[in-house]
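Render this sequence as a predicted structure.
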Amino acid sequence: MPWYRVTYLPAVFEDLRATEQPMAQRLLDKTKWLASNVANLRHDPLHSDIPGMSQYAVGHWRILYAIDREDHVVAIHRVCTRSELYRRAHQS
């Protein structure tokens, strides 16, 4: 089983800075856990209009990510609450 590394888009750091420290740490730890368990997880698609983008729930938070299986990378795109995610989706 190949090892996956984690990359973060700049927006993720903004998301984490705006989050209380214990939850931010939990979310950061979970992104690393995602990368080490890629082969063992079901990757829930974010939306049918956005192929390749998945979400992982941590309580009422969502980690939005994409997997590059060729380069063995899990790219974390955003970290936000479920309500924020759907509020953004309806504004588009």
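Summary. The CA atoms of residues 26 and 58 lie 9 Å apart. Strands lie at 5-8, 44-45, 53-58, 61-68, 73-81.
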